[in-house]
Predict the structure.
Amino acid sequence: MLVLLRVFLPLSFFFFSTCNTTGQKEQCLCKFDLEFLHGKIKKTPSYKANKDSYKKAYKAILGEAKYIDNAYDCFLQLNKLLLSLNDNHSKVYGINKGATKELRDAVGGLEKFKQSKLYKLYPKITIDLDSLTDILALKSPADKEGIYTNKDKLKIGVRKNQEVYEAIVISSKNEIWSPGELIYTMIPYGNDYLLSVGGNSTSKRLIAYTERIEDGTFLTMGYQKDISKSNYTKSIHPDTTYLRKEISSDISYIKVGSFNSWYPTLSDAEDFYASLKNSLTKSNLIIDLRDNGGGGNRNSDILYKIMKDYLKKNNVYLITNHRTASNAEQFAYKLKENPNCITFGQRTNGSVTYEIVDKNYNLPCEKYLTVLTSKKHSKYSILESKGLDPDWILNMDNNWMVQVVDFINNQ
């Protein structure tokens, strides 16, 4: 099941369960959510594999929970607890979807949202924003700290605060975010990965996801220090899931944007893969897995079988980025075992070992839902929180397709 979520997190596919909250609604404490979550976590395969580190984290966070008096800090600590499982599929999200398109389109919808607890939930940083901007503007492109802007003209300042990075809204043309609000808290957990906990930039929904900041760019959310620079890490055909092109007389190209194993996407995949059979006659094939957030073997195994046969006499050049995740990472790992397959791009997302099988729960205080895994793929444990490194790292500032085609032509 697809778990890495596009901007991420439409989250519309989650199944919400119900919890008994009688007597807790008026004085619902973070420890109630924490204890409930603890009971569910103990049934997961990632708990069994990381029991010692989890127990240590739970003891520390439980001690802090009694002092937590706001929803943002509670949300942060719940996700911090899950981080100890080394299971990047397991996350906590907000139940309230925030300022959705439907809400914005409704008469008075946005004004009503601005009176909600979610709108007012994010901490305000008491610091002079002009001074902060001056300091962060001096940071080098390679430094995680600095000033970043997204496509919606939301400008944030990233500063290090002890062991975490804080992303603070500097200026906003977005009606739901105000200068000084803390939009993300980002927790490093090795290999340059960050657990980013905060709000969706367009809806303010509470989200948590895996981020990396490289060369002045948020590789998941797309914030950049220099927005005039092209970002070639992203998919070049974002509105198309499956696509084939002929690059030259001896190079074919296919984009595979999802391994979603449910219909109608699966039927689209089946039709696309059927069109590949007996028609891949050129000696070189580029497979583009950029932004493929995964899915399941019902989808990816069809393509894998075709590729196993193709690779007997031909070459595959596989492109991955940070948003290549889950089942897409598994597919890339298996394909890379063939000597005629070479990988390009960026290290993948590192969310690959565990699988979600309808294990989602509303927490007792009715603010959050948790997504937990219930199946382990031990073969891929070496990739969890590490990702799959490419054979050739591609330059972010130059067209990735041009770089790969040049490599093929120079062989």
